[in-house]
Amino acid sequence: MRKQKTKTGRSTRPNAGLEQEYYRRMQKLIQEMVDSVDYWISAEYKRQQPNIVGDASPAKVLTEKLFSIKARWTTKFGRMAESIAIWFVNRANTYASNSVKNKLRAESITVNMRVTPAVQNVLDSLYEQQISLIKSIPEQYLTQVQTLVQQSVVNGRDIGFLKEELKKRYGVTENRAKTIARDQNAKATNAIARERCKSSGITEGIWIHRAGGSKTYRESHIKMNGQRFNLSEGCYDSHVQRHIHPGELINCKCDFRPVIPPIGSS
């Protein structure tokens, strides 16, 4: 008897527009924070400049100013993180769910669009991830700024040096926001698409490796390309030595094609 050829549906790729808008919202917040930090720290540093080059120690005054700034921006990011997370998860769910529905409809498969407990669990997890990541942005940035300011005081640096270093820290934070937007968009799309497929009776997928136009450091994912795996379990990654899902590891751009069950198999 001839072995039946594996039939697959089309994969659901992350929405580039959603990624860009997610980054834009974070970048707007970051820019406001950076401008505020630059203004207040530069002003205080200028006031303390005679003490920095003299015998007095302005470290305590500058630290108190930084604590005040940090508290203000930590609170604002915490508040904004909730609204951004809700917006992102809702948009990601709408996009991924509709994408799966339309692609499987072409294979005569009906997608259950209800928010099942399994789907809700994924959405809740994604929401918590966004909250945590967005809140971590001011924490990381302002800790770096605090270290930089104190090093500048210790080494007697002028305001020009400090402002140049602050620009570099902004660049690092901006790049981190880009990574968060790209990585979380991929994670959300794959996780939601996977649950929608499972709720429609699809149990397996074919791993699709995507380098995204850049060199990948995950040789194991290249080898995983084309492998058939259980959607509930994931595909075995020899590099991390465990089963993983497409998009699960940071900066993983891989996705999957759903394996269409043979007619009459259910």
Count of runs of 4 or more consecutive helical residues: 5
Gyration radius, rounded: 24 Å
Strand content: 5-15%
The mean pLDDT is 88
Strand order of the largest sheet: 2-1-5
The helix-and-strand class reads: mainly alpha
Report on the architecture of this protein:
It is built from five helices and five strands. Helix 1 (about 15-55) packs antiparallel against helix 2 (about 60-105), helix 2 (about 60-105) runs parallel beside helix 4 (about 160-200) and helix 3 packs antiparallel against helix 4 (about 160-200). Helices cover about 65% and strands about 5% of the residues. The relative contact order is 0.16. It has about 270 residues and is mainly alpha-helical.
Short description:
The chain is mainly alpha-helical and 266 residues long. It has helices spanning 16-53, 59-105, 117-154, 159-199, 219-224, and strands at residues 204-208, 228-230, 235-237, 242-244, 255-258.
What's the arrangement of secondary structure elements?
Blueprint: H1 16-53, H2 59-105, H3 117-154, H4 159-199, E1 204-208, H5 219-224, E2 228-230, E3 235-237, E4 242-244, E5 255-258
Antiparallel strand pairs: 1-2, 1-5, 3-4
Can you give keywords for this protein?
single chain; 266 residues; mainly alpha; two-stranded antiparallel sheet; 5 helices; 7% strand
